[in-house]
Specification:
mainly alpha; about 30 residues
Length: about 30
């Protein structure tokens, strides 16, 4: 179980995905 590591990865990934989602929404918008 990598719960501790997953938590940290998710925090970093959330910022990473936020930029990607903003880019996708920007293109579709």
């Amino acid at each position: 179980m990598y719960h501790g590591e997953m938590k940290v990865d998710f925090t970093e990934a959330s910022e990473y995905w936020s930029e990607i989602i903003d880019a996708i929404l920007g293109q579709r918008g």
